[in-house]
Sequence to fold (872 residues):
Amino acid sequence: MPDSPPSLWDITHDLSPNNYASKTVYFRKALQQGQLFLQQQFDLNVDVVDLVQFRSHFVDQVLKALWQQHVGQDDKISLLAVGGYGRGELHPYSDIDLLILLDQSVSEQPPSGLTHFLTQLWDIGLDIGHSVRTVEECRQQSAQDITIATNLLETRLLYGDNSLYNALHKLTTDHKTWDTRLFYQAKRQEQLQRHQKYNDTANNLEPNIKESPGGLRDIHIINWVAQQHFNVNDLQGLNDKGFISNSEYDVLDKAQRFLWRVRFVLHCLAKRKQEKLMINYQRDIATQLGYVDCDNRLAVEHFMKDYYLCARSIGQMNELLLQLFEENIILADKPSHITPVNRRFQVHNGYLETINHGIFAYYPYAMLELFLILQQHPEIKGVRADTIRQIHAHIHLIDQRFRNDIKNQALFMEIIRQPKGITHEFRRMNALGVLGAYLPEFGQIVGQMQHDLFHAYTVDEHTLFLVRNLRRFSCPEFQDEFPLCSDVFKQLSKHELLYIAGLFHDIAKGRGGDHSILGVADATAFCQRHSLSSFDTDIVTFLVRNHLSMSLVAQKSDIHDPEVIKLFAKTVQTINRLNYLYLLTVADIRATNNNLWNGWRDSLLKQLYQNTKQWLEQSEQLAKNSQEKAAKIRQQALTVLVNSSWPEQQIEALWQSYDYHYFSRHTVEDIVWQTQYRLENPDKKTLLTSRPLSHNTLELFFATQDRPHIFAAVTACLGRLDLDVLDAKINATHDGNTLNTYIVNGSIDNPTEIIMTLNHSLENLDKISTSFSGITPRAMKLFETKPTINFRINTQQSHTVMELNTHDRPGLLSSIARVFLQCDIQVVNAKLTTLGDQVEDVFFVTSSQNEPLSEIQQEQLKQALISGLTAS
Fold:
């Protein structure tokens, strides 16, 4: 423990008992000095264990002094520390949990000074949680509430009568309200529910260092379960009892110290109790812990990788030790039922185990065989704890010689080719370190996070989510979720090629350079090592190299343009490749973060897939340019409308003012829907309607007189409604109207309100402000970047394509629209993509004369956008 600083005085003397205000100031200053001293000691690299114990000791002195002032010596009442404070562990702003234990004789009328004591604790700035009970009330309430029973395991007498404390101590040791079995089951269930709250993964963008899987609470669970049975207080006690080995103790102790250092710095930065490792704190924590940037990775990415690896090791130990406790203590009296599997494995009471402890040493390949057996026998519940310990002890045998052994290569390929269990066993292989040992390149991405708001998971977690998504395409029970993907999956001749591509698609992230190019080398080496044919290898490497191409084309190009389809078809070359790439793309997007996938992206990818497939199947019969395509779509839409009893003459009269661009940019379904609405409402000057595309995606269509400000006003209006514009198609007609289709994402529970608000904006264009006063979230400010703007001209379509990349912020689209208005730019189409903290928007624009922008106009627009966006 560090030496007490000079400012830490004997707080039990020289206090005026009659001056409440001066005492409050006095103690508050003392606590502030104590916090400052702790931070100074941390900067001097004092052991964090000493610091959290010192904080607890310091608070002890404050509480004892105030207890003496307000309550004094009374054998009818005692002050106890419980929870983390009861363990003697306090971080700078941790809760201080107290139990005030009363004798039954004063339970109805506690000492009057008690209220003053508690009030002054709040007044001096301590975050207090307290309960007031008798020993009997503790017994009754702990029997009903597992949380209270757990707190009573960690009590420490601060002041008062020993006999009361001893009576409570007997309750938690000699006469327990919960037996070991029920306590274990309750805490295990509690942990499962807590893990589900965090999606059963520690690898989130902003993990909770206390509550997330692999957090401090997982260590506490081990302690509580064992403490209930062994009556020990910490990990060292479990080690002394022989429940955990020396190496397991070292892993947990090292992990706890690391998390304590992180938590200590996090509290100091936030200046309050803060357990969520928010992205806006991560950089500063990395710096304070001594991490530095390198060529390929930021300091914060080094730090977060260490965090995720730490959480992973805690998760491994937690699962192992809880299962060991269940097998050896909870189920110790249960008869053993053993069923042989082969000469190396047997099933023991539903769990797989080795025949003896020497199996992995004599037969290292059994470390892969184990996972294959679990796939082939889904009735097996899992792996026995002792066998998991054996894997940890022998995993070093998975070396280059092991990887080059044809028997092990065949086993790994057999695991990938199994019809069931691939998701569960890949996850188990990763959790136990076997996957990273067999594929060292995969081991490099374990725990690796990209420091942005787009990638919600570590690279390994994202990869395994992707494999899970691919596997779901094969499951009949998920057919309704993605029917097209399920149908396409059935057409694949070798599903294992898709899984291999999934494993390797991001394998080279973090190395610098283009990971899709670097990953091809690793994928090629794997395929050759595992004796895949050149044809199969070509499919895998094509997928790794091009795994981003389909989403980029869908989100940044006009997929209604035949030239775009022609170029993409040239990239994929065959329908077989297209099938693989489509499935990989859908699975990849859905595995990136929970908010990225929506009905609009689903629709875009389906259209691109179907258009490309048609081109590959019958390119001779398809339209070769936009005019030809527009004519074909126009005729198809006309046929549908006429068959729906609309007079052809009436339809043609409406369409005579439309140019071919309208028909080339819309599907037959869109044209029929919009035309019917206009025909049904011939007298309205402004028409507005909508239809849902998914639970959070809405398509808006409106027709109105063409005027300036429309795009700016509409985007401002939608922004104020907290709706993200994903796509916009704007077509001017020859009779002075404009046809507008917007795809929006967000809360669309009340489409009527959206339409009414939008209609008000259109009717009051001169009064609508296009400025936006929203506050940029603090996390977004971390990723501010200078806008990059590029132009290209599509001569066939007679417009200019402008690509804009910048950081996201409230009102961004409105700011862009204002610049377009100032520069007299017409927007004919827009594809807007938000990727976490960054936006990648594509605008299809013309001059006011409906011509592509000249180089001078492009430069003027670019400078105006940079100036406008920088100012906003």
Remarks:
- Residues 5-17 have pLDDT under 50 and may be disordered.
- Residues 815 and 869 are 7 Å apart (CA to CA).
- The radius of gyration is 33 Å.
- The chain has 39 helices and 17 strands.
